[in-house]
């Protein structure tokens, strides 16, 4: 196929796709912004200032908010997708790197790479309601379809922690290969 280049910010890293609005959101680590791209014409619509070194991002299940993890400012930018601007910032652990929403939309979960815990954010109040021990250097996050279990990769310890959201405790750990990063649940 034809190669298409779209100008975004400096050091583009991760993307989130909004299928309903035909938009892609891209974090740009070095330029501290999130680019919004129209997938129908592959044009840059807007660059939204975020905070320091945005890396991970997740679109809420309803598509109304985009949560962005800012590594160097230790916070989450909450962007209204209607207004394309930040409407709130939430302080989390040290070096937040990835975010995932529970399928039931009640929580957003943030991995804090330089902490040993994940931050549990209430999407209703847009506040951190708990810090849950996850293991050293948590990165990747996957959540069960029933919104009850969180799987977190721990980069330096080569384990995946399995966490019960209700009890907010590790219920199991699985040894895996070197430096696990992203994680995906796949139903067969």
- What is the overall number of helices? 0
Structural class of the secondary structure composition? mainly beta
Extract low-pLDDT stretches. none
What's the mean pLDDT score? 93
Our measurement of the CA-to-CA distance between the termini, rounded to an integer number of angstroms, reads 31 Å
Total strands: 16
Gyration radius, rounded: 16 Å
Shape: globular
Q: Please list the strands of the largest sheet in the order they lie side by side.
A: 1-2-3-4
Q: How much of the sequence is in beta strands?
A: over 45%
Largest beta-sheet characterization = 4 strands, antiparallel
Give helix % range.
Answer: under 10%
Q: Which series of helices and strands comes N to C?
A: EEEEEEEEEEEEEEEE
At a glance:
The protein is mainly β and 188 residues long. 0% of the residues lie in helices and 54% in strands.
Question: Would you kindly provide a written description of the structure presented here, covering whatever features stand out?
Answer:
By secondary structure, the chain is mostly beta strands. The protein contains no helices and 16 strands. The radius of gyration is 16 Å and the shape is globular. The two termini are 31 Å apart.
Descriptors:
188 residues, single chain, globular, 0% helix, four-stranded antiparallel sheet, mainly beta
Chain-wise SSE layout:
Blueprint: E1 12-18, E2 23-28, E3 33-38, E4 43-49, E5 54-59, E6 65-70, E7 75-80, E8 85-91, E9 96-101, E10 107-112, E11 117-122, E12 127-133, E13 138-143, E14 149-154, E15 159-164, E16 169-175
Antiparallel strand pairs: 1-2, 2-3, 3-4, 5-6, 6-7, 7-8, 9-10, 10-11, 11-12, 13-14, 14-15, 15-16
């Amino acid at each position: 196929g034809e190669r298409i280049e779209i100008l975004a910010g400096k050091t583009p890293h991760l993307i989130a796709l909004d299928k309903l609005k035909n938009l892609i959101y891209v974090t740009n680590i070095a330029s501290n912004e999130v680019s919004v791209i129209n997938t129908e014409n592959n044009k840059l619509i807007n660059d939204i200032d975020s905070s320091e070194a945005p890396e991970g991002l997740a679109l809420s299940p309803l598509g109304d908010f985009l949560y962005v993890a800012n590594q160097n400012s230790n916070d989450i930018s909450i962007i209204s997708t209607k207004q394309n601007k930040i409407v709130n910032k939430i302080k989390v652990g040290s070096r937040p790197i990835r975010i995932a929403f529970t399928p039931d939309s009640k929580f957003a979960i943030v991995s804090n790479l330089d902490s040993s815990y994940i931050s549990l954010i209430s999407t209703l109040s847009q506040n951190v309601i708990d810090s849950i021990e996850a293991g050293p250097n948590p990165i990747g996050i996957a959540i069960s379809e029933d919104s009850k279990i969180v799987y977190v990769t721990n980069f330096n310890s080569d384990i995946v922690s399995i966490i019960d959201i209700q009890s907010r405790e590790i219920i199991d750990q699985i040894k895996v290969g070197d430096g696990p990063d992203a994680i995906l649940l796949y139903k067969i």
